[in-house]
Design a protein that fits this description.
The protein is an alpha/beta fold. About 50% of the residues lie in helices and about 10% in strands. The chain has an 8-stranded mixed β-sheet with strand order 12-11-10-13-14-15-16-17, with helices on both faces.
């Protein structure tokens, strides 16, 4: 039989080589066709007495990227349709049977009576790595770029093809839970140390070594199927087990506040599965997997953090009529923290960088930032000294603007001052007048800056987040006159440095700064109302934010929030700001010189030795102190998340945002909006527009007009519409 996605060959020793090579794809993924073809291959190997065993490898640079998540999306859509037609019980039964097919296939391979070896020639993730775990032996080709792991938790799922049960039988339960709950992608040396990979060999010996294991009499029995197998951590109800699971549950709740159903399911399936024989344990895993597939959290996270993220990374918003920008050399003006970070990520992507500052000493300090970052990588074993030297050679630090000649793109990251930026633009364009020019600004309008340039059509905002090397989002801002070439060049640059772009239109605060400002403001107003500071911070994390609003304000600088508030009042009038927030920030900045983490004094104190702690003086700034027992935690959470979602909806209505994908991806990657919701607009859709509007109306009545639902939300609520229903990306394309 011929296969579309696999090559099947049997050598003279009776060892089958199964080469996975999906046509028309850069990576192998698991879909229904793969399941069908691999099932046939497994049965063929099992039934043919002339075949002693099988080696499975890949014909591509990677082994397998995991399941095609569009398959899972189609399963959940089919469940919803069937539930309406035949009821939830019947639909749930079908979803359970369909979603466990891969798990059953892997178990059949594992118990087929023939030895299987995974010859891992590149990265193996998710269902691809679960296939390797089901094999009786695992050999990997030595490659620094190879990663193996089970990252499903990061998109609201968990390994559903036997991964939780095999991992829990290969290592101590505490280690297994950590591996499954973190979703780390491991380098081969670490995977081998954890015994997830049996051997790492030179690439040219990979298949030979795999076959040799079978020739040497490799047994077709998994350890957990062998008589006398003992769990690495002992029985669940042993002393060791009781020291593990209660503590793990406490850690899980501390870290997630029970916001992630998939994480809770991992805890449960490992605990239950270790008390059962393997086949029953796999059935328990499959039941929980089917349940998680139906959860709104999984649906939202898959859509935003996989489907939408991939589409944006592949250039969903790039003008199709512009040829690719052949970026080789870029200029970065301003060698401070942001500019130095931009230079580092650009050089790390292989680009030549000219890093300019006002004098040579300042420019050299900016380049030294790259040296420090690379040294950290060398010390962690993630890079070599030669890698560091090569990167530094690509950065030219100078005070001479003439060095900008020959650049394909220039990005300024100088001080956030209109006059300074205008002078910088003029000096740069005197040397390179026809180059696309990008401004890294988080507050100044791009259109007005563009008007000071030689050609506003070639001027675009490129807003990085701090620290540049860690933050994955870049916000590209279109001025009123920004042309397609400037947009395409900016998108090509962001793709080259391996970050995710969103495209927004010019406005005060753009999208991310504008929305995160509402989160900070709500924290300030809660403090002014008399809510205990610790409660504000804890509820922020309970709601799903990475840190509380007061802590976040310290990170971005309290005096910056104060400057933005004063600028807003000057430009838009007193009605545009809240006097309670103004009084609080004025007190902190002007009377107490508490500027945030940068001067070790903000809402928190930052002692040289020891962790940060809330400043005791905050209590003196509260005219009223509320009894925490009288405060609704649910209401505080709704305020902190709801105000951000509401502001996003306003951005969408005003045309600052034009794509629902960018709203959601930008909110999670840019300011950490509760990932389990799928993002700010998914938060509204998950709740239902009618319910969200009702929430806003209740909060408006109690806390003021900042919560008043917008015209668009009222209209959508009246029609019971969702953002992804009304503004689906495919509908945008059809309209265009």
């Amino acid at each position: 039989m011929d296969y579309t996605n696999f090559k099947f060959d049997v050598d003279a020793d009776g060892i089958a080589l199964v080469t996975w090579d999906m046509p028309g794809r850069s990576m192998n993924v698991i879909n229904l066709t793969i399941i069908e073809e691999l099932s046939d291959i497994v049965e063929r190997v099992a039934a043919d007495p002339a075949i002693k065993g099988a080696v499975i490898t890949s014909g591509k640079d990677t082994f397998c990227a995991g399941a095609d998540l569009t398959l899972l999306e189609s399963l959940t859509r089919a469940f919803a349709d069937m539930a309406k037609a035949q009821g939830e019980v019947a639909a749930a039964r079908v979803l359970f049977e369909e979603s466990r097919k891969l798990s059953q296939l892997y178990r059949r391979l594992e118990t087929s009576g023939k030895p299987w070896v995974a010859a891992i020639n590149g990265t193996a993730l998710g269902g691809g790595f679960e296939l390797s775990l089901a094999c009786h032996h695992r050999v990997a080709a030595d490659n620094e770029k190879t990663r193996v792991g089970l990252p499903e938790i990061k998109i609201g799922l968990f390994p559903g093809a036997g991964g939780t049960q095999r991992i829990a039988r290969m290592m101590q339960p505490a280690d297994a839970l950590q591996f499954l709950l973190k979703g780390d992608q491991l380098r081969l040396n670490r995977a081998k140390a954890m015994k997830l990979v049996d051997n790492v060999v030179p690439a040219h010996d990979l298949v030979k070594v795999a076959k040799d294991w079978i020739r040497a009499g490799g047994k077709p029995v998994a350890p957990w199927d062998a008589q006398g197998f003992k769990l690495p951590g002992g029985l669940v109800f042993s002393k060791a087990g009781m020291m593990t699971f209660p503590a793990a549950n406490a850690i899980y709740r501390r870290e997630t506040y029970d916001n992630y159903p998939a994480a809770r399911a991992i805890m449960q399936v490992v605990f239950e599965g270790l008390q059962l024989p393997m086949d029953q344990a796999l059935q328990v895993e499959s039941r929980h997997f089917a349940k998680i597939l139906r959860s709104p959290e999984a649906a939202a996270m898959i859509r935003t953090l996989f489907v939408s993220l991939q589409e944006l990374n592949k250039g969903a918003r790039r003008p199709a009529n512009i040829p690719p920008a052949n970026l080789k050399k870029i200029g970065v003006i301003g060698a401070g923290f942001m500019g130095a970070g931009i230079a580092y990520v650009s050089a790390n992507a292989g680009l030549e960088v000219v890093l300019i500052d006002r004098d040579q000493e300042s420019a050299d300090r900016g380049k030294a930032h790259s040296h420090r970052l690379m040294t950290e990588q060398v010390n962690k074993g993630r890079a070599t000294a030669a890698d560091r030297d090569a990167l530094l050679v690509r950065i030219t630090a100078t005070a001479d603007y003439e060095a900008l000649k020959g650049c394909d793109l220039i990005v300024e990251a100088v001080f956030e001052d209109r006059k300074v930026k205008t002078e910088t633009i003029a000096r740069a364009q005197a040397v390179a007048p026809n180059v696309v020019f990008g401004s890294n600004t988080s507050t100044l309008p791009i259109s007005s800056l563009a008007d000071t340039s030689k050609d506003p059509a070639r001027f675009v905002g490129i807003h990085f987040f701090s620290p540049v090397e860690k933050m994955m989002l870049v916000e590209i801002i279109l001025g009123k006159k920004t042309g397609d070439e400037a947009l395409a060049t900016a998108l090509d640059f962001v793709r080259a440095i391996r970050k995710t772009p969103i495209v927004v239109n010019d406005s005060r605060g753009f999208y991310t700064s504008r929305v995160v400002g509402t989160y900070l403001r709500e924290g300030h107003l809660m403090l002014a109302e008399g809510v205990p500071p610790a409660m504000i911070e804890n509820v922020g994390r309970m709601a799903g934010m990475p840190v509380g609003p007061l802590s976040l304000n310290d990170e971005v600088a309290v005096d910056l929030a104060w400057k933005i508030l004063k600028a807003t009042e000057a430009d838009l009038g007193a009605a545009a700001i809240d006097p309670r927030q103004k009084a609080l920030l004025s007190e902190l900045v002007e009377k107490h010189n508490r500027l945030g983490r940068k001067n070790a004094k903000g809402f928190y104190d930052y002692p040289e030795n020891g962790p940060k702690r809330l400043w005791p003086g905050l209590a003196d700034l509260q005219a009223t102190k509320l009894d925490p027992d009288t405060i609704s935690i649910g209401e505080l959470k709704s305020r902190l998340l709801g105000i951000q979602a509401l502001e996003t909806a306003r951005c969408f209505e005003e045309g600052v945002l034009t794509d629902v994908r960018e709203a959601d991806v930008g909110s999670i990657l840019g300011f950490g909006f509760a990932p389990f919701t799928g993002g700010t607009l998914s938060y509204i859709d998950m709740m239902g527009t009618r319910h969200f509007v009702a929430l806003c109306e209740r909060l408006t009545e109690k806390f003021g007009d900042r919560f008043r639902p917008s015209k668009l939300l009222l209209e959508m609520a009246g029609k019971n519409e969702t953002f992804y229903g009304r503004f689906a990306p495919d509908k945008r394309k059809a309209a265009a």
